[in-house]
Amino acid sequence: MSFLSKVISGCCPNCEQEKMFKTNGNPFILKMPVMNKSCSKCGYVYERETGFFFGAMYISYGLTCAEMIAVFVLGLLFNISFMNMFIIILFIAFALSTINYKLARIIWLNIFYKKM
């Protein structure tokens, strides 16, 4: 599988059979996604060492910035006031926070994946 298809599927990078996250989470009820410790099919451990996913914060930051810039550009194209744009940007950043969290961890893990 290609890198992009592995990231989109969100499955174990080793066997590609089990989802990496137990739950999806929901920002509106303040529930973060819960990640499995390892794959139950092949035993691949997701967090290789303590602090392994700190780098995923940079990816999450980049995703959030890209989303905010996209909303800002769309706001300019549709002639929305800056205050309304600011409110929309805050809402979008909050609504997509759990998706960014999951996606950043999946991308980070696939960047440093080594076949067992």
Automatic annotation (TrEMBL):
<keyword id="KW-0812">Transmembrane</keyword>
<dbReference type="InterPro" id="IPR009325">
    <property type="entry name" value="DUF983"/>
</dbReference>
<feature type="transmembrane region" description="Helical">
    <location>
        <begin position="58"/>
        <end position="80"/>
    </location>
</feature>
<feature type="transmembrane region" description="Helical">
    <location>
        <begin position="86"/>
        <end position="108"/>
    </location>
</feature>
<dbReference type="Pfam" id="PF06170">
    <property type="entry name" value="DUF983"/>
</dbReference>
<keyword id="KW-1133">Transmembrane helix</keyword>
<keyword id="KW-0472">Membrane</keyword>
<protein>
    <submittedName>
        <fullName>DUF983 domain-containing protein</fullName>
    </submittedName>
</protein>
